[in-house]
Amino acid sequence: MNWVQLLVLGLLLGSVYAMMASGLTLLFGVMRVVNLAHAAFILIASYITYLLFENLTLDPIVSLVITMPLMFGLGVIIYLVLFPRIEGSARYVEMTVLLTFGLALVVEGLLTFVFTGTFRSVRPAYVSTSIHVGDIFIPSNQLYASAVSFALLIGLWVLLRFTKTGTAIRATMQNRGAAQIVGVNVRRISAFAFGTGMALAGAAGSLLSFLFPFFPGKHWQWIALLLSLIVLGGMGSIKGAVIGALLLAIASAVVTDTFGPTWSPITFYLTLFLILLVRPQGLFGAKLRL
Amino acid sequence: MTHETEKLDTTDIPVVDQVDADVVPQRPDRAEGVISRRVALGLVVALILLFPVIAIPVFSSYAYVMQIGMLTLMWISMSSSWNIIGGFAGYISLGHGVFYAIGGYSAGLALAHWGISPFLFLPVAGLAAMAVGLLAGLITLRTRGPAFIVATIAMLFLFLLWFDNWEFIGASSGLDLPLVDIPVRWLKVPFYYAMALSAIGAVYLSYRIAHSKFGLGLRAISEDETKAEVAGINTRWYKVIAFSLSAYFIGTAGAVYGYSLTHLRPLTFFAIAVAARMVLMSIIGGRGTVAGPVVGAILIVGVNEFSVRQFGQTELNIVVTGAILVAALLFFPQGIVGSLRKSGRLPAFLDWD
Predict the structure, then answer these.
(1) Chain B contact probe: residue of A41, A78, A94 with most B CBs at under 10 A
(2) Is the pLDDT of residue B63 over 90?
(3) Number of compact structural domains in chain B
């Protein structure tokens, strides 16, 4: 395949990855929560989208309107029930990892129980069409998914940059204590940010449902990929997550083309290891001191 | 072994207490505690070794009881080992399934290709796991806290992908091993004893580390790594060695377990549920204590057997594992042994630190 084609495919998937990773890194930036259950929640949204498509033939892109608020609500509830209890504990970040690890197991088990372990996929008409520009082909489903992801990323940027809530979120990311002093209701902002991260997970679930086949255990692959992206970009940095996602998606497109699709996940894990060797803090992150 | 422990008790414990004086409440009747602890430990070891004999007249389903016994010992071996890096040093690894696999596959390959019995190969399987642990530790331990956890997950998936595609070891379809040539009724007994060896070794290693200067250094790292470094502890090597040591008895457990299955598949060893159990057992028993992972392993194997009997072999077992983990972290973060010690009600026979 020629390199322009690989670049296009990489960028298309990369923007979807970027949107998925931005939710995860937002949670880490605002609340120091490493959400190992993020991909499990993405899968919940995928299954909801699947149900909506199978029963009501609702287009998976339209179902974002349902999955996003639903996951937002779920996020706020989960945050308020679980996290205030461990706030202020000695090893808070590690606690969040273990806690969300437990959550991921619960979600995986419940999904397997309800939907069994078989592969599912949502197949609207556009999964089998593509657009040709010269000798470059663009699969329609990837084009739509990446356009929606791009729009959501812009939306997130506008939210963080130009709204009062966004300013409060950024202030909390920079310095939680100081934000509290100047009058930010840190707990409410955290709950809102958790909801926002989960809403992005909801959107990601709806989009992934027509990009890749899925089964309940698949979230481990997704979370490993997402974590590689945000470690590469520097944990807590949204800009880093986006750039990391685009770079790795292109790299993985090249690896898939050269060695076959089996080896494409290896790009992510190996990159993660290499990054850790030379620059443990990631591309844009401050070194983690916890 | 008794002589060793006696020597350790009188020399090393006071040192630990001086440092931890404000954390660990003073225990009354130290001398009495030491004696009853040693008697208790001796009894436990004797019980483990004699159990296959005692069980013959007591249980009708002998093979099942031996299987459960072997599994309990396996998880004691694994969670006690995990606790060396995850509890003492405070570095939570979700990638220890890798060492389980290295142990299982190295012993399996030695049998399949050279005809060496895994029971004899056991020490080498442990060393293989330890060597991989050393290399992996050198890379992953460059990070701390959450980034370390992420790195260990990536390590797990990297190895899984490799094993799944490596034809020499049977790739994802697996590797078949010959059966052990003994009557079916006694089939489980050698596995039980091999696993007992692994478990006793793991707990002994954990005990020795807890009562050494090395263990003290690990605890210092878990409290405050920067201060530990300033105090002159070579934190990098302490961590790498702890990581590598923690791999040994997970490797031997993998070797015995793999042989008992007679068929090795990557997912048996690399499943995230395996890693999850090690973590869960240590946390629920009491992270960073010697007795905690043992108590946790016995408890969780029991709960798991119960839930398999209740719900059958379904995914609800993962839900139970996850839910217990969440509940333990929220309501019980110090675990059974840790909470009992804090309230001063830890019985002397469980006080191995």
Answers:
(1) A94
(2) no
(3) 1
CB contact under 8 A, B319 and A231: no
Query: Which of A82, A116, A272 to probe the B interface (max B CBs under 10 A)?
Result: A272
DSSP letters for B244-265: HHHHHHHHHHHHHHHHHHSEE-
| Interchain proximity A99–B92, CB inside 8 Å | no
Does A289 sit within 8 Å of B157, measured CB to CB? no
In a domain, B30, yes or no: no
Residues on chain B touching A93 (C-beta within 8 angstroms): 145-146
Better-predicted residue by pLDDT, B283 or A233:
B283
For range A45-59, the mean pLDDT = 93
One-character DSSP codes across B163-225: HHT-GGGTGGG-EE-PPP-S-GGGTHHHHHHHHHHHHHHHHHHHHHHHTSHHHHHHHHHHH-H
Q: How many helices (H) and strands (E) does chain A have?
A: 11, 2
SS3 A139: strand
Whether the pLDDT of residue B166 is over 90: the answer is: no
Rounded CA gap, B254 and B265, in Å?
12
Q: Domain for residue B338, yes or no?
A: no
Q: Looking at residue B45, what is its pLDDT?
A: 86
Give me B90's structure tokens.
Answer: 């405070």
What is the spatial distance between Cα B207 and Cα B85, in angstroms, rounded to a whole number?
A: 13
Residue B349 has pLDDT above 80, yes or no: no
Closest CA of chain A from B168, distance in Å: 17
- ipTM of the shown complex: 0.86
- Partner B contacted by A93 (CB < 8 A): yes
Q: Do B145 and A231 touch (CB under 8 A)?
A: no
Whether the CB-CB separation of B126 and B248 falls below 8 Å is answered with yes
Closest-CA distance of chain A to residue B309, Å: 17
Q: What average pLDDT score do residues B311-327 get?
A: 83
Cα–Cα distances in angstroms (integers) from residue B6 to residues B9, B17, B133, B211, B349, in the given order: 5, 17, 31, 12, 15
The residue with greater pLDDT, A269 or B85, is: B85
As given in the structure block, the two tokens for residue B86 are: 């995850």
Beta bridge partners of A138: A131
Which of chain B's residues have a Cβ under 8 Å away from the Cβ of A290?
A: 144-146
pLDDT tier, B32 (very low <50, low <70, confident <90, very high otherwise):
low
Which positions ≥6 away from B138 have C-beta within 8 Å? B240
Residue B56 counted as domain residue: no
pLDDT at A53: 94
Q: Domain spans of chain A?
A: 14-217
What domain range is B146 assigned to? 62-271
Under the banding of pLDDT at 50, 70 and 90, the label for residue B34 is low
Q: Give contacts of A 188-207 with B, CB under 8 A.
A: none
- Residue range A157-180: average pLDDT? 88
B145 closest CB neighbour out of A86, A93, A273: A93
- A56 close to B (CB below 8 A): no
> How high is the mean pLDDT of chain B?
84
| Least confident piece of the model among A87-101, A266-280, B206-220 | A266-280
**B48 within domain boundaries:** no
Q: How far apart are the CA of A142 and the nearest CA of chain B, in angstroms?
A: 26
| Residue pair A39/A222 in contact by the 8 Å Cβ criterion | yes
